[in-house]
Amino acid sequence: MAPQKSPDNDRIEAAKRKAAYRAGEEHFDSSMRFVGIGSGSTIVYGVEAIKEHLKKNPPPPNHMNWFVPTGWNSRKVIEEAGLLPIAFDSLPREAMIEVCFDGADEVDEELNCIKGGGACLFQEKLVACRSKKFVCIADYRKQQKRLLTNWPSIPIEVAPIARASVLRELKLLGSPDAKLREHSVAKSGPIQTDQSFYIIDAPFKTLLSPLDVKNGSDGSGKDGQWDVEALAARIKMISGVLEVGLFHGMNGDEAQAAGLQGGQKPVAVYFGMEDGEVSVSRAEEIKK
Ligand SMILES: O=C[C@H](O)[C@H](O)[C@H](O)COP(=O)(O)O
């Protein structure tokens, strides 16, 4: 029997779709050459919105819109929509991705994100950092004051051979319950990413934001209390870690102003709300 849809699910899906269309309206246009497409259930609506936009506003003659996937599933969504995929490593050397659209598992007030709930984070970060701007699409459940409020743990992509030593280091950093992510049904064993790596989910205390630290809080990990940037940097130092699912630091606009290419943080997050509205948090409006 097909699973029953609950009204809650319908509301969440409607919120995702509404946010995706609004993000598409404000950040996609048919003259773009390279557009990044993230992973997960929300981005499916982002691709739908782009497809609709292209139907109404076809690209100029002889112009191709190329879509850069962030993994196997993302490529499938692009192809099924009849859009043209281009692998990240086939991008022309000097080319930047104009915009990338992606979801998130949790977003804090300063637009730091947790990503990787669906085991995609490494390629998402690659694409975000090669994009002039990352635009995030999410529903109301993801909007929180600080990270690790509702979402329980930080996804970390690790080399299979290093899983036990990474778990041991995470314990020392204040995450005694960090766990290797395993299949829950149908198959036993660890989940593998698009890089054939494993995912460890590491719970920590609710994270402080960079603004908390600027205002004098200590997020250095003493007593297990970390801030986003210190924890991300510390986890990244563990040998065997490929990437950590914390997207923080500069956004694309800030990176380019500093003479760099792109940043990990979104320039804007579109939250589909329970009441059917879309709430937009824009980086430029956030108090530094
Ligand atoms: O690993 C998956 C990605 O980081 C997703 O973008 C994230 O988990 C959000 O997924 P969803 O849109 O399904 O909530």
Automatic annotation (TrEMBL):
Catalyzed reactions per annotation: aldehydo-D-ribose 5-phosphate = D-ribulose 5-phosphate
Pfam family, one: Rib_5-P_isom_A
Molecular-function annotations in GO: ribose-5-phosphate isomerase activity
SUPFAM superfamilies: D-ribose-5-phosphate isomerase (RpiA), lid domain, NagB/RpiA/CoA transferase-like
InterPro entries assigned: NagB/RpiA_transferase-like, Ribose5P_isomerase_type_A
One cellular component (GO) term of this entry: cytoplasm
EC number(s) given by UniProt: 5.3.1.6
Pathway(s) of this molecule: Carbohydrate degradation; pentose phosphate pathway; D-ribose 5-phosphate from D-ribulose 5-phosphate (non-oxidative stage): step 1/1
Stored CDD domains: RPI_A (cd01398)
Keywords, comma-separated and alphabetical: Isomerase
UniProt GO BP: D-ribose metabolic process; pentose-phosphate shunt, non-oxidative branch
Enzyme class, broadest EC rank: isomerase
Homology family: Belongs to the ribose 5-phosphate isomerase family.
NCBIfam families in UniProt: rpiA
Descriptive protein name: Ribose-5-phosphate isomerase
Organism of origin: Friedmanniomyces endolithicus
Lineage, opening ranks: Eukaryota, Fungi, Dikarya, Ascomycota, Pezizomycotina
